[in-house]
């Protein structure tokens, strides 16, 4: 029996049907289809999904990256007229449920970001912290007085590691960085470096040029701070005029959900508007529903106190999006499922509506829309970035999103408000340089640009909550962001009456 037949029998025996399109797709694949089907069935079983196996499920498995060399395996869907690819979806790679051990995660963060740093010429001079300490200790004991020993100590060296602590002292800032071989304190003394250090966040990776401090051999002096960062680049653009609509944070089920405005938006998507005719994609960056028990006394602010009711109503609204548009949906911190990042795709929506034009993915995910690479992330970590970096505020989420791009990580800070799961691989490292970086969560729309990447925070469809009022957060809800993928120009469409 061939591998495809074995795979089909396996799926059917486990109670899963294979959609005819998915069958044709599997047939066209030149890879281990048995393994793919088994992975899908296991994942569906785990999430108690009884839905048939769709093309999307197959693509999700195939688009997973190879741990060893980070090669991206993608399926070209150009000939089915949709022109999109799912480059990364964490759903089928998530595996941390029983673990409590974080060392693999931070090791992975270090290794993956070191690889990103390796495109910089200085990285060739990176030395292990242990070797630098050994050199210092040797000098301390025997050659401090010799000319050779002093010269060695005066040279600067490069180290790369994660920031373990950052301390603002009277006249300087002390950073402690760790590269798995050891950790060292490094002092930023001049004003420019102190300013740069203020934009660094804990647990992010960075490269430092340091020199020995001849006066105090216990610390090192920072000469230069090098963020992993994204390079200045020319973004990919779509060859044809096509538009994507970016939204987030519907909060269906909340008393504050702006149903009228959202329905106006849906009606607009079904209209014969000149712009609408060009819209091919809709991206929804999480907080589809308001959830249950997400914050104290939330029940007083809910219309639907049953999460199935919230999901079924959300599905009812979403099915109004015209079928000719492809929708990409990731979860947020209010949606059902685990709270820790990365999050698996929302389950259950399709029990209420078929939503066949949907890719329901995990948070974060990376997609390509007519060659334009889009990173979708709900944005939970923006709270921690805004709280810790001086000068940032909720009213300017784009600045906080830039910090994430600079650190090449979607949620660097561990142990504050954003829960992170102890995965074996750090899937929150920003491996690919996005052409568009789309997040939500802060409920404030803002668009900006950084080194060739279009940054979009897509606001919300929820009015200011009591909690936000006490926090002084003034949302800008009821606005969608439309991006022309041929030019990467964007504009806002406001549905507030
Ligand atoms: O988050 C919506 C906005 O409200 C976002 O800017 C964070 C803020 N928020 C939400 N919960 C809290 C808590 N507990 N402390 C401080 N700020 C908060 P959403 O995810 O939609 O609730
Ligand atoms: Fe939200
Ligand atoms: Zn949120």
Short description:
This protein has helices spanning 3-13, 20-28, 33-46, 55-62, 103-117, 129-143, 147-154, 191-198, 259-269, 307-318, 349-352, 382-388, 397-407, 466-471; strands at residues 84-88, 156-168, 173-178, 183-188, 205-212, 220-226, 243-247, 279-285, 326-330, 358-360, 365-369, 372-377, 436-439, 445-450, 453-458, 479-484, 489-494. It contains 14 helices and 17 strands.
Category from helices, strands and their pairing: alpha/beta
Bound molecules: 2'-deoxyadenosine-5'-monophosphate, fe (iii) ion, zinc ion
How many β-strands, per DSSP? 17
Q: What would the principal axes of the Cα set say about the shape?
A: globular
Separate helix tally: 14
What's the level 1 CATH class of the largest domain?
Alpha Beta
Structure, explained:
The protein has 497 residues and is an alpha/beta fold. The chain folds into 3 domains: 3-70; 103-226, OB fold (Dihydrolipoamide Acetyltransferase, E2P) (Beta Barrel), CATH 2.40.50; 243-494, Purple Acid Phosphatase, chain A, domain 2 (4-Layer Sandwich), CATH 3.60.21. It has 14 helices and 17 strands. The strands form 3 sheets. The protein has a 6-stranded mixed sheet with strand order 1-11-12-13-15-14, covered by helices on one side. Helix 3 (33-46) packs across helix 4. The protein is globular, with a radius of gyration of 25 Å. It starts with a helix and ends with a strand. The relative contact order is 0.13. Residues 249, 287, 332, 334, 441, 443, 460 line the site of fe (iii) ion. Zinc ion binds next to loops.
